[in-house]
Write a structure and sequence with these properties.
16% strand; 9 strands; binds coenzyme A
Length: 257
């Protein structure tokens, strides 16, 4: 199996495991990953999803044999196929559970899309990132909304056009990863994010993600004021908000822990 899902308590770990090709993904792996995210996202027992990879490298991105073979398909077939990768990225971005990417070694091309579509990423000091597409005569297309969101348009101009390798420390400065740690501490760092996520209210977390997406765009006008005011009014009077506020004031643990 090139994609394994292990659910332990509230944590689903989705693991890329295609070592011969450095965890590169083709149409079949894209389908398996999409299915794995749908399952974890719809499982009421799951609170956090970790996207990780077996072996030395996170992923070499899209399978270049598969990409080249697309040259034999017609335009519509090509588009339909590309849309499946776009949908995978969207299914990570909109997963109903928080998603952590755990990254070691190389994360090239489409792998950066998987990482930037996740809510947060922890990189080992061995991690290195590269938007290598222009070297192959293509562009980081379906991953671009997530990568540009993470690093910003001006930085993207540079790294999309130069395909320079980005070391882990710089990836943090660029917003690709949230922190870099020695590889031996990668699991501990992921665990501490998991623990922080488990201590917080699940619906509020997804509302928070959606809020960030909305306020990142558009003017701070009356519509935005109304939207943010409506949100806090709805959440603080809702079941989860009332429980969280009461738990704090009553010095007890909220019921989602
Ligand atoms: N698609 C298909 N096969 C890939 C691949 C990819 N994206 N990346 C690596 N492989 C294959 C290699 O062809 C090689 O196959 P072989 O054993 O049959 O010769 C095998 O994986 C090992 O690759 P190798 O380059 O020897 O591994 P490495 O550990 O020295 O380097 C990488 C790892 C990821 C840095 C390197 O493989 C690489 O740069 N890959 C291309 C990544 C890329 O540009 N992706 C963009 C996709 S849009």
């Amino acid at each position: 199996m090139s994609v394994n899902t292990l659910i332990e308590g509230p944590v689903a770990r989705i693991t890329l495991n295609n070592l011969d090709k450095r965890n590169a993904f083709d149409d079949s792996i894209i389908a398996s990953l999409t299915e794995a995210f749908a399952q974890a996202g719809n499982d009421d027992a799951v609170r956090v999803v970790v996207l990780q990879a077996a072996g030395k490298h996170f992923s070499a991105g899209a399978d270049l044999n598969w990409m080249r073979a697309m040259g034999k398909l017609d335009a519509q077939q090509n588009r339909d196929d590309a849309l499946k990768l776009a949908r995978l990225m969207q299914s990570i971005d909109q997963c109903p559970k928080p998603v952590i990417a755990r990254v070691q070694g190389a994360a090239f091309g489409g792998a950066l899309g998987l990482i930037c579509a996740a809510d947060m990423a922890v990189a080992a000091d061995t991690a290195r990132f590269c938007l290598s597409e222009v070297k192959l005569g293509i562009v980081p297309a379906v991953i671009s909304p997530y990568v540009v969101r993470a690093m910003g348009a001006r930085q993207a101009n540079r790294y999309f056009m130069t395909a320079e390798v980005i070391p882990a420390e710089r990836a943090v400065a660029l917003g690709i990863a949230h922190e870099v740690v020695p590889e031996s501490e990668l699991n501990d760092s992921v665990d501490s994010l998991i623990n922080a996520l488990l201590a917080a209210a699940p619906q509020a977390q997804i509302e928070a993600r959606n809020l960030i997406a909305r306020v990142s765009h558009g003017p701070i006008d009356q519509t935005m004021l109304d939207d943010t005011a409506d949100l806090i009014a709805r959440l603080r009077t809702g079941e989860e908000g009332q429980e969280g506020l009461s738990a704090f004031l009553e010095k007890r643990t909220p019921n989602w822990i």
